[in-house]
Design a protein that fits this description.
single chain, about 220 residues, Rossmann fold, about 45% helix, two-stranded antiparallel ribbon, alpha/beta, 9 strands, Arc Repressor Mutant, subunit A, 9 helices, 2 domains, globular
Amino acid sequence: MEEKEISQAVIGRLPRYYRYLGDLKDEGIERISSQDLSKLMQVTASQIRQDFNNFGGFGQQGYGYNVEYLYEEIGKILGLYQEHNLVLIGAGNLGQALANYVNFEKRGFLIRGIFDSNEELLGKEVRGIPVNSMEKLEVFVRENDIDIAVLTIPKTSAEEVAERLVQCGIKAIWNFAHVDLKVPEFIQVENVHLSDSLMKLSYNINRYNNEKKVKE
C-alpha cells in the first residue's frame, strides 16, 4: 500500500502536540477531548481532528483521546523511540550550548562526537565529549553509524562541510549556519535561522504597536 503523503504543516505541529500531551500525562490526566485540547493549545478542535486523522484518528467520538496512548503514538510517528547518533560540527558558544542540552538525550538524540577547525578548541571536552579535528570527520561518521549532523558553523564553510557529510553517508542535517544548504533530495535538512525568528518577532511587535496607535 502506498504511504499517505503528510503535509509539512501537519508534521510541524506534531512536536507541539507531543509536548502538550507529555505535560498532561505528567499531571495525571488520562483523557482529553479535542475541544479541551483545542483550548489548551489555541488550535481549533477541527484542526486537531484533521491532523490526527492523517494517522488513523486515535480517538472515539464522545469519548475523547487517551492521553498516554496518544502521546506514545505521536512519539512513534516522530521516531522518538529509536536512538539517533549525532555529530556536532562547530564547538563555539552555540555548539556548546546545544551539546549541553540534556533533553536531546531524553528524546534519543545522542551526540557521539564534536568537531571544529579551531585548533584552540581541539581536545577541549564538552559534557565529557572531546572536540576533534575536522580531519577525522569522515572516518568518525562512518565508524559510528552517525545519522544526523548538527552544523553550528559560519555559512562560508557550511556548504563544503555539507558536501563532505553527504559523501560519507549522513542521513540528515540540522543546520544552524546562516545559509540554505543545497544537498541531494534524500538528505533531510532542517534549517534553523535564529535571526529569522527574531525578525518575525520584531515584525509582530511593530504590527501590534501600529495597530495600537490606530486605535488611540
